[in-house]
Design brief:
The chain is mainly alpha-helical and 113 residues long. It is built from two helices and two strands; from the N terminus they run ββαα.
């Protein structure tokens, strides 16, 4: 598995959400410069960078993980549910016939029944 190393100590490689741009108002700007929430000297950011780098170097595999086959059982449909779906479908067709919408419900199936 390829894990890219982050150049987190380089300001230009920071994602946009780590750089706070001023809104244009004097209240939100800091003398016209970009105010960022990332500090090259901040201990937390250095520890985070070290942790991510450590995790990337200690990955055991450089290839995709093999996946075994998985057997999934689907329960048999409940006969009561089928009867309910058929009743709903029948009632919708009756309503369509009464309202002159006969063709709009042609081929309508409720829950695949």
């Amino acid at each position: 598995m390829f894990i890219p190393t982050m150049q987190i100590m380089d300001y230009s490689s920071l994602p946009h959400f780590c750089r706070k741009e001023g809104s244009g108002s004097t209240r939100h700007s800091s003398n016209g410069t970009a105010d960022n929430c990332f500090s090259l000297d901040h201990t937390y950011h250095q520890q985070l960078y070290t942790y991510i780098k450590h995790q990337a170097t200690h990955k055991e595999t450089n290839s995709p993980i093999k996946q075994g086959s998985v057997h999934v059982e689907f329960p048999e449909p409940d006969p009561d549910d089928t009867a309910i779906a058929l009743t709903i479908e029948s009632e919708l067709h009756k309503l369509a016939d009464q309202n002159g919408l006969c063709k709009s419900f042609n081929g309508l199936k409720v829950n695949g029944v």
